[in-house]
Amino acid sequence: GTSNLQMDNSTSLLVSTKHHNHMAHQISKTLLSFFLFVLVLSDTVSSVRINLNKPCKHFILHIHNVAYDADNAANATSSTVVNPLGLGTFDFGKIVIFDNPVTTDENFLSEPVARAQGFFFYNKKTTYNTWVACTLVFNSTQHKGTFTIMDANPMTQPTRDLSIIGGTGDFIMTRGVCTFSTDLIQGQKYFRLKMDIKLYECYN
Amino acid sequence: GTSNLQMDNSTSLLVSTKHHNHMAHQISKTLLSFFLFVLVLSDTVSSVRINLNKPCKHFILHIHNVAYDADNAANATSSTVVNPLGLGTFDFGKIVIFDNPVTTDENFLSEPVARAQGFFFYNKKTTYNTWVACTLVFNSTQHKGTFTIMDANPMTQPTRDLSIIGGTGDFIMTRGVCTFSTDLIQGQKYFRLKMDIKLYECYN
Amino acid sequence: GTSNLQMDNSTSLLVSTKHHNHMAHQISKTLLSFFLFVLVLSDTVSSVRINLNKPCKHFILHIHNVAYDADNAANATSSTVVNPLGLGTFDFGKIVIFDNPVTTDENFLSEPVARAQGFFFYNKKTTYNTWVACTLVFNSTQHKGTFTIMDANPMTQPTRDLSIIGGTGDFIMTRGVCTFSTDLIQGQKYFRLKMDIKLYECYN
Fold it and tell me: Residue C34: its chain A contacts at CB < 8 A?
């Protein structure tokens, strides 16, 4: 859980003399009520707290996209499903669906820790720009669950922040930001993205 | 800003006289201020609390999908809009748009309580697997509003959890998890899904 | 920031007589612990508070959509990428991708304050109805960041609420509701929507 509030020392207070017994008793009861009340608020029911300076989870992953070119069915991990329509020269209207391997290092051949499933499309006349929806699907002994990234992806910029909008399993109800940077582009065939994932809302 | 908490009275505290009356009075005022303060924090402004053991709303619905086959325009509730491209044999690239009736029981002919509007597509070479975005639209005397489900849907698994990422009206700002299970599949023509809906964040 | 907690005077407390020194000292320690505890809860870690009666940000924008018709490549801001399939007469299955200018007034020629990037599709047999996913991308000296709107858009209704599900930069982790109303429709060529944007969760 996100909250491990320690209040060990703050309870053995209020040493009172005989004179003050009754009043101190009342006060201590009141304070105890407070403690319990605030604890109930904050811990059992998990009051939501966000600290943008300290993600509750932070990790880096790499996503590998091998585009289908009619000859590489065995290796392809994504494919164009709608072709660009010729509005400008930056692929406006092209839609790509993918099921990409996700690894902890940059090696395409490393054992994937997740799949990235989703789609993106090109939507600008004046430059290469995509809009992307992408769910990371974890299904290993270490992690089970999903979270979904969705945002504009102005891919000509060195880094771009995309929203993480929800999740399930180990990532139930999570939210945060994923910073994309392009590791490598090999023509139309292959690209690799670095994902710097910062979750600010965690319940597992 | 969201919080304009005023704590005017909480400053003149704990001046004690030779009797305890004044001090006790001040302490009680302080404690009351605390109560009010915490209440303001937690209630009026609705401090967000999540209890994963106890959804704030929990209900089960069934979604009915009748695929358009060129001969059933009157009954069809969904249609393929982009055909699979032949990458593998599991419909990779096929996109389906739908406006499906949603009922409280399994009967297709029951009065719908909502429509499920959205799309899904197949995105795996090795098995049937979809990615889905689906908004439940309620527009009855009982419920008005929407919420949106979005996630990978590994449909060969008996149950799969999908994120609920937001809503409007009766479901404003809601979040949670929807567990899909396949009730029934009738070839390419019809399928029915059970949706076990657990909302953990509710404001209405 | 969202929290402007003022507690300036709350430290110079606890003037006590000799009799009550110890007890008052203990009480003051306790109260200070409380203050610190509540401050930690509410301020540093930014306990999440939602007030549906008072958005943390509220503004109105206008989105302009110029449909591509093969002859207006210079002006077009959106294009059909998948044609309707003929299920009914309300464009079922038509998919549109856009990169639309967003202005603070209704004038198409005003300097855009953002771009609206995303897609929508028609999904009903019985009336014009769309489902939309749309990211507002701000990249000016005033605002940098994004937020994403996603929901059903029953466009024949005078107003409709759509979920705002997340954001980045100036709008990091934001959520809320965007009320669409149609300002103007000029045949198939142009439409303008008014967006009444209410953010209920803000961290910047």
Answer: 31, 34
| Alpha-carbon span C204 to C138, nearest angstrom | 14
Residue A191 pLDDT greater than 60, yes or no: yes
In chain C, which residues have their Cβ closer than 8 Å to the Cβ of A19? 19
pLDDT digits (tens, 9 = 90+) for A45-101: 678 889 999 999 999 999 999 999 999 999 999 999 999 999 999 999 999 999 999
For B163, the closest of A31, A45, A167 (CB atoms) is: A167
HEC-encoded secondary structure of chain B: CCECCCCHHHHCCCECCCCCHHHHHHHHHHHHHHHHHHHHHHHHCCECECCCCCCCEEEEEEEEEEECCCCCCCCCCEEEEECCCCCCCCCCCCEEEEEEEEECCCCCCCCCCEEEEEEEEECCCCCCCEEEEEEEEEECCCCEEEEEEEEEECCCCCEEEEEEEEEEECCCCCEEEEEEEEEEEECCCEEEEEEEEEEEECCC
Which residue of C4, C7, C8, C13 to mutate against B (max B Cβ within 10 Å)?
C13
CB contact under 8 Å between C52 and B119, yes or no, is no
Nearest Cβ partner for C203 among A52, A85, A150: A52
Least CB–CB distance from A131: residue in C76, C118, C173: C118
Under a CB-based contact definition with an 8 Å cutoff, are residues B26 and B13 in contact?
yes
Provide the shortest C-alpha distance from residue B181 to chain C (in Å).
23
Least confident of A7-11, A200-204, B13-17, C194-198: A7-11
Domains of chain C: 1-47 (no CATH), 57-201 (2.40.480.10)
pLDDT band at A3 (very low <50, low <70, confident <90, very high): very low
Is the ipTM here above 0.90?
no
Residues of C within 8 A of A155 (CB-CB) are none
Q: Which residues of B touch C121 (CB under 8 A)?
A: 81, 97, 119
